[in-house]
Amino acid sequence: MTQKYDAAQIKVLEGLEAVRKRPGMYIGNTSKSGLNHLVFEVVDNSIDEAMAGHCTEVTVTIEEGNIVTVIDNGRGIPIDIHKEKGIPAADVVMTTLHAGGKFEGEGYKISGGLHGVGISVVNALSEWLEMDVVRGDKRYKQKYFRGDPKKLIGEYQDVSDVPSGTVIRFMPDVKIFDSLEFTSEVIDHRLKELAFLNPGIIIHFEDTRYEVDVQKTYQFEGGIRSYVESINEGKATLFRPPIYLKKERDSYQIEVSLQYVSDHYDEHVISFANNIRTKEGGTHLAGFRTALTRVINNFARKYDLLKDKASNFSGADLREGLSAVVSVKLPNPQFEGQTKTKLGNSEMKGIVDSLTDEGLTDFVETNPGVAKLIINKALIAQRVREATRNAQDLARRKTSLESTTLPGKLADCSDSDPANCEIYLVEGDSAGGSAKQGRDRNFQAILPLRGKVLNVEKARIDKILANEEIRNLITAIGPEVIKGLSGRDLDDDDENRDPMEILKKLRYHKVVIMTDADVDGAHIRTLLLTFFFRYAREMIQAGALYIAQPPLFLVKNGSFKKYLYNEAALEETLAEIGKEKTSIQRYKGLGEMNPDQLWNTTLDPERRTMLRITMEDGEAADEIFTLLMGNKVEPRREFIEKYAKTVRWIDI
To answer: 3-class SS at 181?
Structure first.
């Protein structure tokens, strides 16, 4: 039967109804990251006021019940009557998409929220939102319920001697979000980031939801130079202080700060456009990278410092161990999507390239000692890269499915489609034996790892490739996903890579870490996570890395039988069934489980629980890996002593 399709089927979504109907289009998703994004949208408005020179202090508070309050001492949202709408301008801003002071006029020459949908989207996706604005000698209060203003609540008051500013207080809508639990650490990190990007501004953060309140204040007069120093805290740097450049051309401004870490081999470059974190880079980052490579090569060639006069340093040689922050301010930025992950303005590549070249050339000519330190590090990177080419050739396969040198211990699966396949990385031969017997051979592969794998945080890639367990792991999952083993990683212009492309290089679309539920198992899991974070980060971004959740206990009482996954569940179960005649089996290792038990609890897709590894904030992850897995012991001990009593996420 033909389905009826006429004018009656055309639905017009009025006001903010479209946002509630398709929230993912505006905040990315309705999970934790989308929820946290609500806070960022409100705060970004306050920061836009700071960039315009009208705000010096911002306070963000998360209260019990996941209620958020954002206060700034800016000019206040305009509260006079809007000529076209006939209502206060603040109501227009809060209830109308694409309404704001950032499209034209002199309200904001530079801003992050150019789409004009930020605060209205927060309003639409909140169960309620309260606005309190002081502007001049007037105060205006309004409350909205799921985006609709209740006119009887909105009111003006005459005030005197009250500082101007805006207070936004809201509670997310439980009908929209998977959870209302804001991630304190993520919000805290973003606020600290904004304080770095806006020297002098004071940002307060308070979270009162837990027994121990979080109270922090950020103010950094050093700006992004202080940011780079923070990134490299606890690391041995090649020189101090970081290089800092600030240049302007017409309506464009660039700031660059960079420093090299002598015993670190990963690249850590963060980019921003109008204070918005561009996680996928863009034209400004491409311009910076091109200029850095050219300037250092020109200096090395001018003073005859290259090993081979016919061979320049590659971009990869000059980015090894590099920490940098690139921040640009521009009118009318073009981002890909409202969540703003990539800058697309074509003119920015040339502008950043030219201004960075100009500033960096002046720096290296007046600081030749620093330039020579950078060149010496690049020479080492170049030699190591050449030395590892043979290992790369051995590890790399013609396609992601062909291999004649798969590890001998790998029990592969029979399905040839990577999208259907998964590989379990297990601890030792005993667990490997149980897993091999308990798996479904059609789509599940098992790779036993012997002992604790190498801590890649403390080793160069040539040492990593010489490690047998790491080499087996790389060969099994697909060498081309590993940084340094794929020819494309040597390209200068690699910030445009799509993480989802990595799935085409994997032999299995699910790579599952399955270790014992003890201290050694947790250590091995952490070592593997360190490896994937440092050398296969795109695999994490593509959602291909998982952690298996084998049970800790088997509880039996007569006909009652239940697998339990943590101590809390055990206590709850014992309270229900009693301890009398109850037997409790504690699984210290996977090898203690029978193959059928392992299948029923951990391997069977119909019954198992697996955790997908995600990376909401790569910079915060980098900091914690450096702290906990790096060479310096003292910062690690201080961290453990500081948080031992208050840690909430002690186990994955």
So the answer is: coil
Q: Which residue is catalytic, options 518, 592, 616, 623?
A: 518
Catalytic residue from among 41, 173, 193, 516? 516
Beta partners for residue 241, in sequence order: none
Length of the chain: 652
pTM: 0.78
- Report the C-alpha gap between 240 and 260 in whole angstroms: 9
Q: Report CA Rg, the chain.
A: 28
Q: CA–CA distance from 258 to each of 225, 245, 322, 357 (Å)?
A: 8, 9, 7, 14
Number of structural domains in the chain? 4
- Based on the fold, state whether residues 319 and 341 are members of the same structural domain: yes
Q: Is 415 a catalytic residue?
A: no
In a domain, 612, yes or no: no
**CA neighbours closer than 13 Å in the CB half-sphere of residue 122:** 27
107 or 363: which leads in pLDDT? 363
User: Would you call 308 a catalytic residue per the annotation?
Assistant: no
User: Which residues, in sequence order, are CB contacts of 595 under 8 Å at separation 6+?
Assistant: 434, 435, 437, 438
What's the rounded Cα separation, in Å, for the pair 366 and 361?
9
**Nearest residue to 555 via CA among 581, 576, 589, 583:** 583
Structure tokens at 644: 């031992």
CATH of the domain at 227: 3.30.230.10
- pLDDT tens digit string along 379-437? 988 887 776 665 555 544 433 334 446 787 899 999 999 999 999 999 888 888 989 99
Catalytic option among 185, 520, 592, 623: 520
CA angle 319/325/327 to nearest 5° reads: 130
- Report the percent of the chain where pLDDT is more than 90: 52
Q: How many helices (H) and strands (E) does the chain have?
A: 21, 22
Note the pLDDT tens digit of each residue in 148-202: 876 556 778 888 888 999 999 999 999 999 999 999 999 999 999 999 999 999 9
82 lies in the same domain as 190: yes
Beta strand pairing call for 243-249 and 553-557: unpaired
For residue 480, indicate whether it is catalytic.
no
Residue 598: inside a domain: no
The domain of 102 spans 17-218
Q: Position of tokens 């609890």?
A: 601
578 part of a folded domain: no
Give the residue among 143, 142, 147 at the shortest CA–CA distance from 124: 147
471 burial (CB, 10 Å; 0-12 / 13-18 / 19+) is middle
Q: Share the mean pLDDT of the chain.
A: 85
Q: Which of 91, 422, 427, 469 is catalytic?
A: 427
Half-sphere exposure in the Cβ direction for 576 (13 Å, CA)? 11
Catalytic residue list contains 518: yes
Do residue 211 and residue 227 come from a single domain? Answer: no
